[in-house]
Amino acid sequence: LKSIATPGEDITKEKDKGILKSIATPGEGFGSPNEGAWVKIEVKGTVNGTVFYDKTVELTLGEGMDVDIPEGVETALQTLTKNEVCKLKVVPKYGFGAAGNDNIGVPANADLDYTVKLIDFEKAKELWEMGQEEKIEQAKGCKDKGTKYFKEGKYQLAIKQYSRVTDLVSYDSGLDDDKKGENHALKLAGELNLALVYLKLGEHIDAKHHASKALEKDPDNVKAYFRKAQAHQHLDELEQAMSDYKKVLSLDASNITAKKELNVCLLKMKEYRQREKVVYSGMFDRFARSDASKAAAAHKNGVLRDGVGEWSNDKKEKEEKEGDLSEVELLSSGEDIKADEFMATS
């Protein structure tokens, strides 16, 4: 009864109480699984007292969602010793979130309860335990897994695999030229694929970051410029998007999609320009009416003589022209772009 009443230990990195763990049966020894480890577990999950998962499964830590094991359980597994049994309380953030999981009957935004036993495990090698060539082989496997998950629409799993790729091939010291080339190609592929997955998820800041990292490896990579342009475009950073689309076309003049998207950006910039002109026009009209009213009042009171202190038409036109910042911005960002240049297919 005491263990049931105990709220449990918060095992989240953020200490946000999203995963609370209580030990039901202590385990054996001191070792625990790490990211990438093979594990065999017994797991029972309930939501509002109803069992939705009750089976023995084997999985690789980091790929639990492939067998409907959420992040909260995977996090807990890295704290267990062999034959340890624990009880978990998992909030939606570390469970199945707002989407839920229709396959196993978990509703949206559900708090989950689990009982988990770690039957057996084999730790994965840490990065410092691997040689450079071994890391390359591991990275190839992770890349293939990431692509498999991406095609299946399992984007979070794909991100984990592609991120693993970039971690494995961060350095190339001690490699011959051929292996350095493989290492470089894998690093580039990892960054490009991360940019693509984040675009699919609508996480455009992350997409932009990884496309930029790809360009550090290959400054003339068409895919990297295109994906960075897409991220800028979705963030309404139109000048940067147009610049990147132009770079794509300088490297691949036949890229019809880049031409179309560049034209979309141009039209959107023109739309913004028109809105700004309306805003600035209304603002200066108000200033003019205000000044005219003040001048009339001053004349009436005998404060100003004719022509003194008036805002002449020439001055008004000059101020309005200088105040039309939207046109200046468009010309500097659009440069020599014309819409009809990007509508034609090649």
Low-confidence stretches: 1-5, 304-346
Number of domains: 3
CATH topology of the largest domain: Serine Threonine Protein Phosphatase 5, Tetratricopeptide repeat
- Write the H/E string, N to C: HEEEEHEEHHHHHHHHH
Mean pLDDT over the residues: 85
Question: Fraction of residues in helices?
Answer: 40-55%
- Radius of gyration over C-alpha positions, nearest whole angstrom: 30 Å
| CATH H-level superfamily title of the largest domain | Tetratricopeptide repeat domain
CATH class category label of the largest domain:
Mainly Alpha
Region (Disordered): 306-330
Organism: Hirondellea gigas
InterPro entries: FKBP4/5/8-like, PPIase_dom_sf, PPIase_FKBP_dom, TPR-like_helical_dom_sf, TPR_rpt
Keywords: Isomerase, Repeat, Rotamase, TPR repeat
Helices, strands, pairings?
Layout: H1 2-5, E1 9-10, E2 19-25, E3 38-47, E4 50-60, H2 71-77, E5 85-90, E6 112-122, H3 132-151, H4 155-168, H5 177-201, H6 204-217, H7 222-234, H8 238-251, H9 256-300, H10 313-323, H11 325-334
Antiparallel strand pairs: 1-2, 2-5, 3-4, 3-6, 5-6
Give an overview of the whole structure.
Its EC number is 5.2.1.8. It catalyses: [protein]-peptidylproline (omega=180) = [protein]-peptidylproline (omega=0). TPR repeats lie at residues 188-221, 222-255. One of its GO terms (molecular function) is peptidyl-prolyl cis-trans isomerase activity. It comes from Hirondellea gigas. The protein is of the alpha+beta class and 346 residues long. The protein has 3 domains: 2-122, Chitinase A, domain 3; 127-237 and 244-255, Tetratricopeptide repeat domain (Serine Threonine Protein Phosphatase 5, Tetratricopeptide repeat), CATH 1.25.40.10; 265-341. It has 11 helices and 6 strands. It has helices spanning 2-5, 71-77, 132-151, 155-168, 177-201, 204-217, 222-234, 238-251, 256-300, 313-323, 325-334, and strands at 9-10, 19-25, 38-47, 50-60, 85-90, 112-122. A 6-stranded antiparallel β-sheet has the order 1-2-5-6-3-4, covered by helices on one side. A hairpin with a 2-residue loop joins strand 3 and strand 4. The longest helix is centred in the C-terminal third of the chain and has 45 residues, at 256-300.
